[in-house]
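Lay summary

Proteins are chains of building blocks that fold into shapes. Our project writes down both the chain and a compact code for its shape. Here are two examples, one after the other.
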Amino acid sequence: MENRNPRSASSTSHVASLLTRATLANVRKKLRRRAENGSRSVFYDNTVETYSWLLPGWVVEERTLTSGRMYKVYYEPSGECYRTKSEVLDAWEDAGIIVLDL
């Protein structure tokens, strides 16, 4: 099984980069949803191999609902969210960021 080094919102403060911590602080300010009873939410940054394509300061939240359905939400450093990798890449293109290798 792949070791993905999960960085949850509660455990991130001592292991995440300063940029990741700043992003998570902005995300917490914007989140208004209440976690479903029994649901799980874990944050990852670009230090995890699966998400190494993310720019520094960007994080992805993997939400697993009680039904077992898992989905991802990507956050930029300001806390703005994106639902898909394609939306993230489009935002980078709109900002003039050139991505050479994914």
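And here is the second example, written the same way.
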Amino acid sequence: MTVYTLNLRVFWPLVTCLLVGLLFLHQTLRRGQDPGCPDRALGILSLLKFAMAFTLCYVFIWYCSSSQGRGRRGRVESTEAAPPRTGPSRKELLEDYYERQVRLSPHMLGHSKAHVAQLVSELVRAGRAEIPPESTLAFRGDFVQIGSGYEEHKVSRPDCFDILVPLRLPRGLKLEPRSCPGREGGPPLCSLETPKKTDWLRRHRAFAEAFLSQEEGGDVYRLCPAPVLRWFYPTVQRCLSAVRYPFEQRCSLGLSLSEDRVLLRLTPRSDFVCCHISMGVRLIPALPLGEGAFLVAAAPRGVQQEALWTVYFPRQEQRLLAWLKGRVPASSCHLKCLQILKAVCDLSGQALDGQGAAQWRAVLSSYALKTAWLRLLFSTPSEAWEERHLLERMEELLRSLRDSLQRRHLGHLFLGGDVGLLPESLTLPKPFKDTTSSNLLAGFDPAALDLVSARLAYSWTHLHRLIRLGRPQRDSGGRGLRCKHLEAK
């Protein structure tokens, strides 16, 4: 857009000439109205007066305009001489971004978790079997809360929760867990096997045909995740129908099947669901291994893994986080660092296309980021995590994450092969105590890991611009709405 400025050296002389011309016109009209012959001496005298007035006005206006120009030039020179104003420091930017967009309201989180727990507890209770079934699966009757929403590092909104739903095997069926090293040292996998020739399988051939598979020439049956999920989804539908009515007055409920997860959606009808937040609950069928470990369906990466499961250690992770909470200072910034890292990764992934965004999320998964963060916590003195060291710890966390990407290796927290890294109080199930080390980055294309590392460095260097361009709406998701339950207190 072109900006025009006023040239005072041309403007004021034009105004003066216009005024003098109006005076001459006025004098001429006045003389034309007077009777008799005009006096030439008086006309010449009036002309001289007008000329002197014109000269004085012009000199006065020229002096004023020139003094204003000198003042303006002086101000411009002083402005140019002054040091340029700098924007907020990176630490101030991180603090402001955390308070505005990352930090989660404890009230909103607690209210949402309570509503999810109430609904899921009723749902699994409806599907619980008092005694183990004879020839099918059943709910155990409890659930396990996992993920960032229950580990105090959830980002922005409490809109998604992960729930493990433990299952009961048929009465008399014994499945032996067998650790299977991941492809190229990847995430830990496990199979549940039973001998092919058993009396139980002879008596329950329908279950064996529906849920078990065998390799060519093998002498064992393996429990497959796919038929378990096909059984799980309609079972959850029936249980939800049984408990739907009391909750339908508060929110509408929907159920969908997405890959290896059953997604339960809650859309609020009233303010019971805090601040009108729509939530999604991922219900994950899990088989207990003992000592707080569970097996869930393994997510294949382009390779058919029909009868393999991946192991979760939710109880061990919760104990580890509780142990770390007592180890770090009261004013620690360790949770804030992880939350900011996850938020920056989410912002940076928004600019990618479909395939690039999927690859970005797969490499920088929430569990991978948490693993890198925990490894840095164990290798750093607790005093270094005080609030005043926020920027230093963020830079160190990003540097260690990029080093892992460039080395193509990020060891599993419990199965990473690091002797003495974890406290001795944490115990693992027997099949995984002496297993081989597991690399969370195995199976990814090295070129993709290099691109993720480079983009991570670019995002941190241009953090100001990334936050400014990718900042979501401040009042979205109920941030600007008041909760009636909070006001009642």
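What can we say about the second shape? The two ends are 54 Å apart (CA to CA).
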